[in-house]
Amino acid sequence: MPASIDTVTNANKAGARPYPKAWLSWAVWGIGAVFYLCVFFLRAAPAVMTTELMRDFGIGAGSLGNLSAFYFYFYVAMQIPIGALTSSLGPRKLLVIGAVSAALGQFLFGATSNFALACLGRAIIGGSTAVGWLVVLRLAAHWFPNRRFAMLTGLSLFFGNLGALFAQVPLRLGVEYFGWRGTALVSSALILAIGILAWLFVRDDPSEKGLESYASAALQEHDKVTLSSIVVGVRSVFSVRNTWLILLAQGGMVGPIMTFTGLWGAPFLKARFGLEPKASATICSVMIVCWAVASPVFGGISDKLRLRKPAYLLGSIACAFGWAVMIYAKSLPLAAFTLVAALTSFATGCVVIAFAYGRESVPARHMGTATAAANIGNMLGNVFLQPGIGMLLDKNWTGTMLKGAHVYGVEAYQSAFVLIVGWSLLSCVMIAMTRETSCQQSS
Q1: 250 CB neighbour count, 10 Å cutoff
Q2: Do residues 417 and 389 make contact, with C-beta atoms less than 8 angstroms apart?
Q3: CA-CA distance, 210 to 195, in Å (whole number)?
Q4: Ramachandran angles phi, psi of 405, nearest 5°
Q5: Of 81, 133, 14, 424, nearest to 254 (Cα)?
Q6: Of 33, 121, 189, 415, which residue is least crowded by CB atoms under 10 Å?
Q7: Torsion angle of alpha carbons 271, 274, 279, 285, nearest 10°?
């Protein structure tokens, strides 16, 4: 069990080592949080440069979807291995390796004119940034009292969404003034700087600086987990029905909003409303903000009800309905579309419940693996939706070109976005089939 506040006080009275100063804890955690901001930035960056990427690489929507999705292929593949490496290498080394590798991948992506090498760059970025979430949570657990962990989890998600916002209007402005390659190379240098800062200042635990650790004895013991125990944990977690249902449900809610704001939203808004990239990026920014704001709201509602399923299911139903209206309500004016998009994004905030729901569905010793499973679900939608929509767009392409880039009509997008609506509806069914935990940990 985590150390209580009284235990901490008594330890200090007994002459134990001092706990780290607040500024030091915030500085160590903050470097990890800024890297997590970069994770979301790199993930969403292709959204505001779709025309430039198709033109420079001479590709259509299917290939563009794969280029973007290479990030998610390797991000998902690395989730479980990163869990093992977090225990063996520690968050500091992982953060340094992740930042340096991500900088290398972004440099390769921005510098090459070869499509295969660009895909390799996105793959390196995806695999290396997979460390972000686990690292920032592990640093929070070691450098802050347990009573602040929930707040820091929410703050970490805020940093992530802030990165996604930087990948909208600010990035589009950078692309217009410096070109997409220039912005990619500059961002590569900034990410490398984060890796250097992590090497110089971040430490896995306050004890490495002669200070008292906030990590409980149970957490310290968990840090010593072996590969064999991880394999056992994975088998145990995926033998629970809720794990599979939540994983699939997350794909159908997180996947649509990240696919829309992270790749296909801007060209769709151009085709439907004639919006320029900056205006499209503004609407996507509104969606990201609404999603970010809603996350703690849904989490708080779930905690207050002492139930996970009702708010999770209600949010998923609202998501499915909202996507159907956004895509297929042909007479919807831009203002109404933006409002529906904002409400749909707010409803998407219910996905934060999945982390608590999944962890409570398995024994406490497997909570970390359950968290990783939910995170895999978050990315799974992008793995299939981004390239899947691209392939359907190519299938319905009429041959129209503009400045060397493929142009797709509204009907093509409506046909391709059936994947978004279909998976959203499937998510409602999956959540309806879950077993309520009543906020109680499974034994």
Answers
A1: 27
A2: yes
A3: 23
A4: -115, 145
A5: 424
A6: 189
A7: -30
CA dist., res. 438 & res. 199, Å (int): 42
- Is 110 in contact with 181 (CB distance < 8 Å)? yes
Among 75, 63, 190, 55, smallest CA distance to 128 is for 75
Write down all domains in the chain, each with its CATH number in brackets.
18-225 (1.20.1250.20), 229-443 (1.20.1250.20)
d(CA 392, CA 420): 12
Distant-in-sequence, close-in-space partners of 282: CB < 8 Å, separation ≥ 6: 168, 169
Q: What is the pLDDT along the chain (443 residues), one digit of tens a residue?
A: 344 433 444 444 445 688 899 999 999 999 999 999 999 999 989 988 988 999 999 999 889 999 999 999 999 888 777 766 776 788 899 999 999 999 999 999 999 999 999 999 999 999 999 999 889 988 988 898 877 776 777 788 888 888 988 998 899 999 999 999 999 999 999 999 999 999 999 999 898 888 888 876 655 655 555 556 667 777 888 889 999 999 999 999 999 999 999 889 989 999 999 998 889 989 999 999 999 888 888 888 888 888 999 999 999 999 999 999 999 998 899 999 999 999 999 999 999 888 888 888 988 667 667 777 888 888 889 889 999 999 999 999 888 877 777 889 999 999 999 999 999 999 999 999 999 999 887 87
Q: How far is the C-alpha of 254 from the C-alpha of 250, rounded, in Å?
A: 6
Is 128:101 a contact under the CB 8 Å cutoff?
A: yes
Instruction: Say how many CA atoms lie within 13 Å of 236 toward its Cβ.
Output: 19
* Size of the chain, expressed as the number of residues it contains: 443
205 vs 92: CA distance, rounded Å: 9
Residue from 245, 243, 424 nearest 317 by CA: 424
Take residue 257 and report the two structure tokens written for it.
Answer: 């909003």
Query: Do residues 231 and 83 lie in contact, with contact meaning Cβ atoms separated by under 8 Å?
Result: no
Q: What are phi and psi of 192, to 5 degrees?
A: -60, -40
Listed in sequence order, the DSSP H helices in 331-400 are 334-348, 353-360, 367-395
